[in-house]
Design goal:
Number of helices: 4
CATH class: Alpha Beta
CATH topology: 60s Ribosomal Protein L30, Chain: A
Number of domains: 1
Helix content: 25-40%
Structural class: alpha+beta
Oligomer: single chain
CATH architecture: 2-Layer Sandwich
Distance between the termini: 79 Å
Strand content: 15-25%
Order of helices and strands: HHEEEEHEHEE
Largest sheet: 7 strands, mixed
C-alpha cells in the first residue's frame, strides 16, 4: 500500500471514530409515568451476595436514620433554608452563601447542635452520577461552613441523589431538586 493510501485510511478512521467520542448521551428518565419515583430509582447497595437493602449503610452509622432521628440526634427540618445549585454544579453561588452564613451563625449560638447536610440532585443523569453529585454538593456546603469556622465534627453529610426528585420535568422546572437541605441535629 502506498503512503497516500495509508494517510487517507488513517484520516478516514479518525473522522469516523471522532464523532463517536464526542456524542453526549441524553438524560435517562427515572421513575414512573406519574412523575413520582418507583423502586427502580433506588441504587442497590450491598456486598454482592444478593442483599441489596439500604440497611447495610444505615447500620454502619449506628442507629441510622429513622423516625426523625439521626444516630442519637433528633432531626429538626425547616429552621434553616435550603441552598440551591446550578445544573450539574456543586459550586455555591454568591446569593446562596448568605444561607450558609445563617447556618454558621445559628451553630455558633447553639454549640450543642449539629448539622446534617443532605445533598440532592434533579432526575437528569444516572442514579449513580446523581448520588455522587449530591455528595459533592453536601461536601461543598460543608467545606464552606468549615471556612466560616464551624468544626467538621459538628457536620454530617448525606447524599440522596435523585431519590426524591420529580422525574420528567424540564431543567428549569427541576431547579428545586438541585439543592442541599440544612437539617438541625439536636441532642
Amino acid at each position: 500500500m502506498n503512503k497516500t493510501a495509508r494517510i487517507f485510511l488513517t484520516l478516514l478512521l479518525v473522522f469516523c471514530l471522532l464523532p463517536a467520542c464526542t456524542r453526549k448521551q441524553a438524560p435517562t428518565q427515572l421513575g414512573n409515568a406519574t412523575g413520582g419515583n418507583s423502586d427502580l430509582d433506588l441504587i442497590p447497595l450491598g456486598n454482592g451476595d444478593g442483599d441489596w437493602g439500604l440497611d447495610d449503610t444505615l447500620e454502619a452509622r449506628g442507629d441510622g436514620i429513622g423516625n426523625g432521628k439521626y444516630d442519637d440526634f433528633t432531626m429538626v427540618e425547616g429552621v434553616l433554608p435550603s441552598v440551591y445549585f446550578g445544573f450539574d454544579s456543586s459550586s455555591i453561588a454568591a446569593p446562596e452563601r448568605g444561607k450558609l452564613q445563617q447556618a454558621a451563625d445559628y451553630l455558633e449560638q447553639n454549640p450543642d447542635d449539629h448539622l446534617l447536610i443532605e445533598g440532592h440532585s434533579d432526575w437528569y443523569g444516572t442514579s449513580e452520577y446523581n448520588l455522587a453529585l449530591g455528595d459533592r454538593r453536601a461536601a461543598s456546603a460543608g467545606d464552606y461552613l468549615g471556612s466560616l469556622g464551624i468544626s467538621p465534627l459538628r457536620i454530617e453529610k448525606l447524599s440522596k441523589g435523585s431519590l426524591e426528585s420529580v422525574s420528567g420535568l424540564s431543567k428549569s422546572e427541576s431547579s428545586q431538586d438541585r439543592r442541599v437541605d440544612l437539617i438541625l441535629l439536636k441532642k
